[in-house]
Amino acid sequence: MFAMSQNPTAESVADPLVPFLAEFIRNNPVVCPACGTDLHDLVGNACPKCHAALTIGLTSRSSYRVSWGTAFALFAIDAAIGIFFAIAWSQVRGGPRREVVPIFILYITSIPIPIILLVLRRRFLRTRVRFQRGTVILACLWTLSLALLFLLVLWR
């Protein structure tokens, strides 16, 4: 995956040794690592908004896939529990206890989230690392909060 990084000694983004990279920047969503400005019209070696010096480097897509995989796994666990609750709910005569119903609903509403992540996977992998990490944090908080709510209701 192509990445921009800050470097105060950067020579030039459109260096004669790598002329194809300037075209790559024009044709792909590349943002400044310091301020997030879109760099597709970049002319020099610094961000036009924050003036941070930039260098070009290559990073492994695996570092981006870890965030997606973690978020997907956590939301998929919640969705699996939601599917289990939906099936269990349909089997219980008279429905589940009243205090459990909101938790059932929260888990059941988790079912489409991993599907959405699958459909938007490529778009997710192109987002900034900050957004990806935020999504993983959200997935962790969502999973933990549902689990804690469930345990609190069961121990009542």
Beta-strand segment tally: 2
Query: Oligomer, anyone?
Result: single chain
Please give the share of residues in helix. Answer: 55-70%
Order of helices and strands: EHEHHHHH
Q: Order of strands in the sheet with the most strands? A: 1-2
The total of helices stands at 6
Mean pLDDT rating: 76
Describe the structure.
The structure is a single chain. By secondary structure, the chain is mainly α. It folds into two domains: 1-59, no CATH class; 62-154, no CATH class. 56% of the residues lie in helices and 6% in strands. It has a two-stranded antiparallel ribbon with strand order 1-2.
Give a quick set of tags describing it.
156 residues, mainly alpha, 2 domains, two-stranded antiparallel ribbon, 6% strand, elongated, disordered N terminus
How is the secondary structure organized here?
Layout: E1 2-6, H1 19-27, E2 54-58, H2 62-91, H3 101-109, H4 112-119, H5 121-125, H6 129-154
Antiparallel strand pairs: 1-2
Structure in a nutshell:
The protein is mostly helical. It has helices at 19-27, 62-91, 101-109, 112-119, 121-125, 129-154, and strands at 2-6, 54-58.
